[in-house]
Amino acid sequence: MTMHHLQPNMDAISVQSQGAVAVITLKRAHKRNALNDGLILALEHAFTHLPEGTRAAVIAGDGEHFCAGLDLSELQERGTIEGLHHSRMWHRAFNAIQKGSVPVVAALHGAVVGGGMELASSCHIRVADESAFFAFPEGTRGIFVGGGGSVRAPKLIGEHRMLDMMLTGRVYKAAEAVPIGFAQYLVPTGTALAKAIELAQRIATNAPMTNYALMHALPRIAEQSADHGFFTEALMASIVEAAPEAQQRVKDFLEGRAAKVKAG
Questions:
Q1: Taking the CB of residue 109, how many other CB atoms lie within 10 A of it?
Q2: Is-above-0.70 flag for pTM?
Q3: 3-state DSSP assignment of residue 105
Q4: Residue-wise pLDDT tens digits, 130-168
Q5: 198 in active site
Q6: For residue 57, which of 23, 100, 88 has the smallest C-alpha distance?
Q7: Less CB within 10 Å around the terminal CB: N or C of the chain?
Q8: Exactly one of 74, 118, 130, 245 is catalytic; which is it?
Q9: Of the CATH numbers 3.40.50.720, 3.90.226.10, 3.90.640.10, 2.60.40.10, which one belongs to the domain with range 3-203?
Q10: Is 138 a catalytic residue?
């Protein structure tokens, strides 16, 4: 089947709204939520057609695992040009998550492996529970990452760790996830989804322009020279601060109607 005839398999995911939060769940538990073309395209469709009123999103996996990576049956008899287009399709889908309209929180448990780690790394916040484990087995299977892993993962964990994982098949356990940068939160087994939804609901209360600026400006500033970064920051600050909602929030704070920052 050519890339042009592939269709989203919307049965491979579910999309449920909890207030202003859309929860997108991978629904291939029988395959450890392995990513095939229909599922990738369904994710792209979901994030480009979020329910009206969505201000934050969560990605989770049904069953015992978040995502065990690429469904390897899809690699059979694929030529070079087909492989190139396939990789670019993954890039397009995951860019719809990372560079979409709302911040996305990943709820990670069980296997977060290969393409599953690529999917998780396209999210803005990652919550891992104590059952989660992380690996890039592509190196030991004779292939290379194709879903953006070589770009996104080293920014989280460092190039040296990515090299080690690819060369040796090293697996990291959940307890190591936060210290090395895979995740920002570690929670007890079975509670990652609840924590992710809690964080997403908190994010959804932010001014939308601030959330959008953080999603789209911050990563770009990180890749700019300092001089360019300062200029981009000044532009974004002026745009965000001029929004009516931002001006009202500052006024509320100054007039004692907004909570102050407290420790813990």
A1: 25
A2: yes
A3: strand
A4: 999 999 998 888 889 999 999 999 999 999 999 999 999
A5: no
A6: 23
A7: C
A8: 118
A9: 3.90.226.10
A10: yes
